[in-house]
Amino acid sequence: MRVEILCTGDEILTGKTINTNYSHIARRLGEVGLDVVWGTVVGDDRDSLLAAFRLAGGRADAVIVNGGLGPTVDDLSQEVAAEACGVPLVLSEYWLQRMTESYARRGRVMPANNKKQAMLPEGAEFIDNPIGTACGFAVTIGKARFLFTPGVPREMRRMLDEQVIPRLLALGGITGVSRLKRFHSFGIGESRADEMLAGIPGLAIDGEIKLGFQAHFPQLETKLAVRGADEADLVARLAPVEAEVRRRLGNFVVAEDEQTLEGEVMHKLLALGQTLAVAETFTGGNIAARLAPLAGAETVFKRGVVTRTLPTEGASAQAAIEAAAALRRESRASQALAVLVQLDDGPDRPDFGATIAIGIADASGTVSRQARMVGGRDWVRVGATELALDCLRRHLFGLPVDERIDFERR
Amino acid sequence: MRVEILCTGDEILTGKTINTNYSHIARRLGEVGLDVVWGTVVGDDRDSLLAAFRLAGGRADAVIVNGGLGPTVDDLSQEVAAEACGVPLVLSEYWLQRMTESYARRGRVMPANNKKQAMLPEGAEFIDNPIGTACGFAVTIGKARFLFTPGVPREMRRMLDEQVIPRLLALGGITGVSRLKRFHSFGIGESRADEMLAGIPGLAIDGEIKLGFQAHFPQLETKLAVRGADEADLVARLAPVEAEVRRRLGNFVVAEDEQTLEGEVMHKLLALGQTLAVAETFTGGNIAARLAPLAGAETVFKRGVVTRTLPTEGASAQAAIEAAAALRRESRASQALAVLVQLDDGPDRPDFGATIAIGIADASGTVSRQARMVGGRDWVRVGATELALDCLRRHLFGLPVDERIDFERR
């Protein structure tokens, strides 16, 4: 099935707003096995919209239209859809009542111009928006089914998952349920992860369980998209593959699904009833900034110290251990993490590097990790932050802290 | 002149990469007075590319194509352009030699597949890429001039400004020079800034000097796009308007052009020969993280402290002053900044708020600023970080620290 995405709106067309809606829709469709073959961006302009509808209607089987469902005069999607279908706009009494009630519940009167949002092309299929005033709808233009969604990301995302994707799967004769299992790792690049997962039965880019990667620098997300006849069938297919992926990626997996690296560290500290103090040099508050806002940090996070001054011996393992031990004594935290970064001399360049020394002290003693990273000042900062959090995670979970990662040079 | 943007590549089409190249190109064109009227995304697919070239060639006067100029087999732009023009690909001896020399200078031999990048449609206009192996080119397809640019953002951006935009301006019969003057402000929203700048002669969204805004949460960027016959003419037009904008936005302007808020704070501290210590609560290292990486921070930034514990009286002005004074005594820094954030009780919601107290201590005494912000935990954190840095800037530059901003509630 050929699916197209058509994004409307001057903010998108002029580049003022980056088109993250497009990439979200395309990614989600790919994850459920639907392929996007064409993307179009047009502004809030009647002629362009009509031309774009007709072109896409001649090419595609299904078109997701995003935007142009608002209450103002430059929101043209319903009007132009009606024109393309050769039908009038008619009032959806149902949606008008839903909007009126929704305003009433918040003690407000619905502004008159919202009525426009209940005007749909005659014969259109209604698509519910449970969290906004812009309802969706579907019509057929040319040989394609057009599904209209609002531009507000939160509303679009929910409607895409709950309303649009099920309709597209039905259109394409794809039945059953789907799930996306995600692993977040640190320390391995996409090509190494691909190698580590080679040969798992049923798992491939075009396999029964679709394998995908997305780099969220410096983390890598490994995604398994799976379909099943029903929930039991899906679990039966996914479970062995999921377990094998987890085993192969091993200690590099820092979190799964909605979890985060810093969240896992925080949960473990809470579970152990321990507290934490952090001393940072070049990472300048970035480690503290990841931990301090989390729920539970009030209890766990005792102290963060940011300084630019390295010990005289630089970023050695010994210096990091001593810094961690001193921080633990001063702060009286259960765990003390010290991160020393010694930058190379010279100007910032793509091959600019640094030596990173990480020390952790707790009641049982101290551990250290030293690594050399190159890639410019910003990458060193980001890499050192992630490495430090990951060392702490590994230490707390009883894993080796000195496993070689792809991003270091020796 | 009708300009279109055509982005190619599976990574963009499938949403794996967010299409920031599109928004950059569209914004830059808008800033020099060129209007983008249509955007297209297609994958690394011969049929789609050819169809997209023909459609755009029938609609537009000029088309910027981005991507598909790499050395691998899925890079199809030159091939399909030649097909659309009905001409063969021919080797550019000039570009082949440039590439070979560039590899030789780095002591490397050019891989054989790079030769593909010197194959251009016969009769194509060469467009230089001074920093990469993917040269650009221009051909005419249908009624439109097509300008091909590489997908690597750094290369595309430089070629767009130096090579593509001048050609487009010439095509559109637009002569002279252009400049974009930028003001970065904190504390005013887009609609208020628009009001503050109302009535300046020659300055409007469609005026002689084009006014534009872009929100970089929580900062606002105010942009003046100006054209002139030559540099002297441009300066003569811009100078009085620029001065008036600076006067009207007044103390809210935190930086201009390439400057940043934290950079201005750092420069001032360096110029004064002063040092700084920062104590943060809920902003958890974010303030330190903005300052610590800057050039000169080695000298200026004495100490950052992150804690979750508020003084017993909460985020009062008095508590912030006392915390700043204590920090100054302990750290012996010239300037001490203390930021106390007292969150409301209850779950995170869009109207979740906090009271923020900022204290600054230096040799001349102490100042404080208290504000109430709502908008959820993340917004409070971002807002408090910006407010604290802005208070420090205002204090260092002798400006009032307690000017009301749009983002606070009273």
From TrEMBL, chains A, B:
InterPro entries: CinA, CinA-like_C, CinA_C, CinA_KH, Competence-induced_CinA, MoaB/Mog-like_dom_sf, MoaB/Mog_dom
Taxonomy, superkingdom: Bacteria
Pfam families reported for this sequence: CinA, CinA_KH, MoCF_biosynth
Domain MoaB/Mog: 4-171
NCBIfam families on file: cinA_nterm
HAMAP family: CinA_B
Family per record: Belongs to the CinA family.
Name this polypeptide is given: CinA-like protein
Source organism of this protein record: Enhydrobacter aerosaccus
